[in-house]
């Protein structure tokens, strides 16, 4: 089984980390022996150390050997036997160099054989890593050695290893007798793995024989034989398999296989079998030859023998995803992301790449080619949308290509004027053409502005925007063009002017721990004028094609409170913004064809309000609303409340409401997320997403998580409900219990997943039908 720590893909890294579960067993031992047992170097170092210590001052207890990093030696007695050529130091011996320190009751070096022996409470420290044992012997000539009754501690991974005999028997081969491994602190760890024999070859493999898994001091199960990688380089081979149990899929088994194709190309093939549902094969292909070129291709094919959409068998299902990033010469960049799925129900069961609570309803694929200069940008883009809410995606209008040239906001040389401009070409098409505009549009938007400061307070910024449009489009019904437009609109321009001022006051106060508080008030008045009227004869691709005449006066008032916490540390802890507009070009709707004219019901625009309150770093309150002053009703609002304390307790509530022009609710939803730490190791959590207009919860989840120092267990209950976008029926809820056990250093070792109702023997209800008056999404 290979070790593949060099893989760069997030998915690849997650799987590859599993390959190094037991590799930490040997690395501390390896590193210490490698330093102490290098042929020639260590031998000369030890001999010179003793000679210099004795020759320099044999009567003293301490000595310093001058090297690139000085070596300090301290002992109660230092001696050298010229007849036997043996150097010895006895009595609280300490040898240190840099951040490496060795302590023992006695240290002996045989100049004839090159053997170094440390005995009696041997402790070696290098940084935070520690080796302890009764005796350490090193044969410096062959770079081998043995640690008796030893313990190793690796700080970086919090790994503890101990054994009766830890031996280096070759250049890269090690053996541990009667050893054990854990990542838990304490004299009696919460869990550990022990084995009679542990052999490992660096850049090869390690084997564990006759092992046991312990919880405290109780052996739980027997491990007769285990092979694990001890390689630093990526290697072709099987990765750690996974096993799950599901009421809908049955026994779910995966056997990933890693392919090391080259230093910059690798792949993972994952066969998967679900006893109740399907057989699946997945491929993840990764390439990263340079920092300027990298990408990932992922695809999975599923033979699903239980999928029956609308009474028809559908066994072949697939999902494909591509990400590609490349930078060419001349700062030309290409970014591409594509996703394709076989059917709109795929993610309900097989959406492992998505969080099901995100309610994936459409997939976007795009490719962007761009080149940026100091003051301009060229960009060519292609987009494709896969709408999962419609049974046939052929009716979805696709927008490709999109070609854009942008001139950034900048001053015209030798003038006080500023200019910015955008030229954009869009092409719209759909395979199934019915009741929609399709074709091309070219538009050029150019704005000239003149910012002026009248004294220290008042600022003016008049501007003029000219946007010409050219159309080459047709209106289709039943795949036939019933209306064609080949025209250029040159009458489109807009005049805009705004005036604002900033009023500031600074207060010295200890309120909420702030050293000082600044109050800023910005009143702003803006006027927007468009003399042209929209024409129904022109194509309608998006809202910019129906811009009507306007003479809109907008007034806005913004208050901001900013607190100073310290030097260069500020916090905007309160802000409120109010705005209201009046359109002087308002006309009452005509008696005939009022729907086609889409006239405004009133010259007053909605009153908009935004509030943000954040008096502390851990408290956040935000809200915004739109109020119709004529109808005397709120058309849209949202409230977001969040609180988190230093223990990790969390409360977040989001409530939002939106209604359409017919004063009917488009969305009324409340999301609640609560997390409470009962103790330092135990926490409970609750999450709910509730839709008020349909009176059911999209998602509900609650559970407990217990995570002491070296392992964790999580118990979670979740219920997911979906509404079919075509039939408007609430689908059968997915009620599931998850139990996840993880051992730190080994990863997730068991996962239990079964249907809640199957556990307690209560069949689920048949899908309910939403009342007729609630069939709008």
Question: TL;DR of this structure?
Answer:
The protein has 777 residues and is mostly beta strands.
Notes on the structure:
The chain contains 6 helices and 47 strands. Helices cover 7% and strands 60% of the residues. The longest helix has 16 residues, at 41-56. The two termini are 51 Å apart. The strands form 3 sheets. The chain has a 32-stranded antiparallel sheet that branches. It is mainly β.
Main beta-sheet annotation: 32 strands, antiparallel
Number of DSSP strands? Answer: 47
How would you state the average pLDDT, rounded?
A: 78
Give the N-to-C terminal Cα separation: 51 Å
The structure class reads mainly beta
Which regions are unreliable across 5 or more consecutive residues at pLDDT < 50? 1-47, 49-60, 63-67, 354-358, 591-599, 747-777
Helix fraction, binned, reads under 10%
Assess the beta-strand content as a share of residues. Answer: over 45%
> How many alpha or pi helices?
6
Round the Cα radius of gyration to an integer and report it. Answer: 36 Å
Shape: extended
């Amino acid at each position: 089984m290979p070790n593949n720590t060099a893989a760069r893909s997030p998915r690849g890294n997650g799987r590859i980390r599993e390959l190094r579960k037991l590799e930490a067993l040997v690395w501390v031992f390896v590193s210490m022996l490698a330093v102490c047992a290098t042929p020639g170097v260590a031998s000369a170092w030890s001999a010179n150390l003793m000679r210099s210590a004795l020759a320099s001052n044999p009567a003293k207890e301490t000595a310093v050997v001058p090297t690139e990093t000085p070596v300090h030696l301290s002992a109660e007695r230092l001696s050298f036997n010229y007849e036997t050529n043996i150097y010895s130091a006895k009595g609280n011996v300490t040898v240190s160099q840099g951040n490496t320190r060795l302590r023992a009751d006695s240290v002996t070096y045989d100049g004839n054989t090159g053997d170094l022996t440390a005995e009696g409470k041997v402790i070696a420290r290098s940084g935070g890593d520690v080796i302890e044992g009764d005796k350490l012997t090193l044969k410096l000539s062959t770079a081998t050695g043995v640690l008796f009754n030893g313990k190793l501690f690796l700080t970086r991974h919090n790994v503890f290893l101990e054994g009766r005999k830890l031996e280096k028997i070759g250049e890269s081969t090690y053996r541990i007798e009667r050893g054990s491994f854990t990542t838990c602190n304490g004299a009696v760890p919460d869990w550990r793995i022990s084995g009679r024999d542990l052999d490992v070859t660096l850049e090869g493999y390690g084997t564990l024989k006759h092992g046991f898994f312990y919880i405290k001091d109780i052996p739980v199960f027997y491990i007769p034989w285990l092979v694990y990688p001890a390689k630093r380089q990526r290697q072709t081979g099987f990765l750690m398999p996974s096993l799950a149990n599901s009421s809908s899929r049955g026994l779910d088994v995966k056997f990933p296989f890693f392919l090391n194709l080259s230093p910059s190309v690798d792949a993972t093939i994952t066969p998967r079998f679900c006893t109740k549902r399907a057989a699946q094969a997945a491929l993840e292909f990764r390439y990263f030859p340079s920092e300027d070129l990298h990408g990932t291709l992922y695809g999975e094919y599923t033979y699903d023998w239980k999928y029956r959409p609308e009474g028809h068998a559908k066994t072949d299902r697939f999902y494909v995803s591509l990400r590609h990033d490349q930078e060419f010469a001349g700062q030309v960049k290409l970014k591409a992301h594509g996703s394709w799925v076989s059917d709109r129900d795929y993610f309900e069961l097989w959406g492992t790449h998505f969080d099901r609570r995100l309610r994936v309803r459409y997939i976007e694929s795009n490719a962007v080619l761009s080149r940026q200069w100091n003051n301009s940008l060229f960009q060519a883009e292609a987009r494709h949308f896969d709408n999962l809410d419609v049974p046939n995606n052929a009716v979805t209008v696709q927008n490709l290509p999109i070609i854009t040239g942008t001139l950034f906001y900048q001053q015209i040389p030798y003038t006080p004027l500023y200019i910015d401009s955008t030229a954009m070409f869009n092409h719209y098409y759909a395979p199934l053409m019915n009741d929609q505009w399709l074709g091309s549009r070219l538009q050029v938007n150019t704005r000239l502005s003149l910012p002026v400061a009248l004294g220290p307070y008042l600022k003016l910024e008049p501007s003029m925007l000219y946007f010409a449009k050219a159309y080459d489009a047709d209106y289709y019904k039943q795949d036939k063009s019933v209306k064609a437009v080949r025209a250029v609109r040159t009458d489109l321009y807009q005049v805009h002017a705004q005036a604002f001022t900033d009023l500031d006051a600074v207060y010295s106060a200890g309120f909420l721990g702030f050293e000082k508080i600044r109050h800023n008030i910005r009143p702003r008045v803006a006027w927007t004028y468009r003399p042209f009227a929209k024409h129904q004869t022109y194509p309608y691709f998006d809202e910019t094609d129906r811009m009507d005449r306007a003479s809109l006066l907008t007034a806005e008032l913004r208050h901001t409170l900013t607190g100073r916490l310290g030097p260069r540390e500020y916090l905007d802890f309160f802000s409120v913004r109010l705005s209201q507009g009046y359109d002087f070009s308002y006309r009452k709707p005509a008696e005939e064809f009022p729907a086609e004219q889409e006239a405004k019901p009133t010259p007053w625009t909605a009153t908009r309000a935004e509030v943000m309150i954040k008096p502390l770093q851990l408290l956040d309150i935000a809200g915004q609303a739109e109020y119709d002053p004529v109808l005397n009703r709120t058309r849209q609002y949202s409230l977001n409340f969040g609180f988190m304390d230093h223990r990790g307790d969390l409360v977040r509530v989001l409530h939002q409401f939106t209604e359409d022009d017919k004063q009917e609710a488009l969305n009324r939803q409340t999301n609640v997320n609560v997390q409470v730490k009962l103790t330092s190791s135990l926490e409970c959590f609750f999450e709910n997403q509730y839709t008020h207009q349909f009176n059911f919860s999209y998602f509900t989840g609650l559970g407990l998580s217990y995570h002491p120092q070296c392992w964790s267990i999580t118990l979670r209950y979740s219920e997911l409900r979906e509404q079919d976008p075509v039939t408007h029926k609430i689908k059968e809820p997915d009620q599931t219990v998850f139990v996840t056990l993880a051992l730190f250093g080994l990863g997730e070792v068991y996962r239990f997943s079964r249907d809640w109702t199957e556990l307690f023997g209560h069949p689920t209800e048949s899908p309910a039908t939403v009342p007729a008056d609630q069939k709008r999404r």
